Amino acid sequence: MQQAWWKGVPPIAFFDTNPMGRILNRFSADVGSNDDQLPQTLFDFTVILFIVIGAVFTTVITLPFVLIVLPPLVYYFIVVRRIFVSSTRELKRLEGLARSPIFSMMNEALSGIATIRANDATSYFTSKFELVHDSHTRAFFSYIACSRWVGFRMDAIAFLLMSFVCFLSVLFQMQGWFNIDPAILGLSISMLLQLASAFQWCIRQSAEIVNQMVSVERVLAYGKVESEAPLTLESDKLLDPSWPHEGAIDVKDLGVRYRPSLPLALDGASFSVPSGCRSNGPFSTMVDDTGEISSKDLRHRAFRRSSMRQLRSSSQENL
């Protein structure tokens, strides 16, 4: 994913619409989560999953009546996990968005620290930083509170499971329905204790993997950003090296916008520049062009994707 970032060079308009703090957030916090936290969480989930499978297998062999309560218990855990994931996934996205202004403020303060001190604006920037930090803290605290919410409910249901198994064990032993060796009963209860804690941790880690995939989603979003056209295009080879023979340019229905999502700043402009005339115009490298521009037999759409790009950059002042 990072290699896709380094290979892609987005257009300048990308940096106009994305603050530096948002970019730093993706390259630091989100990448750090993908490299450090996500592999560790995935490893913990895999290990605990095998522990849970072994504990369930041992408990069912020694205490078969546990199968009575095990299916509803698993169903309850799955329902709680579904509720937990649906909330924390959105909170994780919100926390990631609230983290970007912190990086922006730090970048502004470090870049303009001399100006801040010269204008005695330290208290202003401090209060502004506290506001964005509090906004991030609220989102992060809500995320932690949801983790405590699911932990409390899973601990409570694990306690009820232990109480139910102990009660049934004593009842079956007193009624003579099922003779249980005290040593086997002690082993089963110890395995149930391990199962209760391991099962709830397994559920929480599986939900945490889903939440941390939000960082992967954010990283992949930047990997799909449209890149600038390469310096040399295949269409450059189609031109005669002696082209152009004369500097006549015909422009028909030219439309210009600063970004694809914005309306046209110039719409339907048509003009001609005869050969030998000097013309100066606001041809910017940051615009998206539509329409048709022709020079003799060559026609193209959008300057930045055309084979005339190098010609335009070398003779822009004379157009």
UniProtKB/TrEMBL annotation:
Keywords: ATP-binding, Membrane, Nucleotide-binding, Transmembrane, Transmembrane helix, Transport
Membrane topology, from the record: Multi-pass membrane protein
UniProt keyword ATP-binding, yes or no: yes
Domain (ABC transmembrane type-1): residue spans on this chain: 11-211
Subcellular localization, as worded in the UniProt entry: Membrane
UniProt keyword ATP-binding present: yes
Bilayer-spanning residue ranges: 47-79, 157-178
SUPFAM superfamilies in the record: ABC transporter transmembrane region (SSF90123)
CC per GO annotation: membrane
Coiled coil: none
One GO MF term: ATP binding
PANTHER family: ATP-BINDING CASSETTE SUB-FAMILY C, MULTIDRUG RESISTANCE-ASSOCIATED PROTEIN LETHAL(2)03659
Family: Belongs to the ABC transporter superfamily. ABCC family. Conjugate transporter (TC 3.A.1.208) subfamily.
Listed name of the protein: ABC transmembrane type-1 domain-containing protein
Organism of derivation: Fragilariopsis cylindrus CCMP1102
